[in-house]
Amino acid sequence: MKAQRKDMCTQLLGRYNAEGEAFLQCILTGDESWVHHYDPECKAQLMEYRHKTSPSPRKFKVVASAREVLFTVFWDMEGMVHMEFLEQGQTVNSERYISTL
Predict the structure, then answer these.
(1) E-assigned strands of 45-92?
(2) What are the domain boundaries of the chain?
(3) Whose CA is closest to 90, among 74, 73, 68?
(4) Most Cβ neighbours (<10 Å): which of 23, 50, 74, 82?
């Protein structure tokens, strides 16, 4: 695998030497990350302001809306091109990347 990576890097460097900045402008990359998603139960919670060191309010049950969602972002040399939050139960695979791009 190291040899394959070396060969690919050599090819990319060769393209950069031949095409210059035009080659860099056609590169698109992406990443994904799990983020915590929370919908406040009421408007008062939405407007509540707390410092990081403030004690959190006591709750006796877990809020049903608290969950993690998968965040996917794509960017090029100019900046962010596309971002999306995947619905619960979806995964990132090659078919998902193809349909997104």
Answers:
(1) 67-76, 79-85
(2) 28-100
(3) 68
(4) 74
The alpha helices in the chain, defined as continuous H runs, are 2-19, 21-25, 43-47, 94-100
Please tell me the pTM assigned to this model: 0.56
Phi and psi based region of residue 20 (left: phi greater than 0; alpha: psi -120 to 50; beta: remaining):
left
pLDDT tens by residue, 18-74: 999 999 898 988 888 888 766 655 555 545 666 677 766 655 455 555 677 888 899
C-alpha to C-alpha distance for 5 and 9, rounded to whole angstroms: 6
Model confidence at 9: pLDDT above 70: yes
What six digits make up the tokens of 28?
Answer: 């698109």
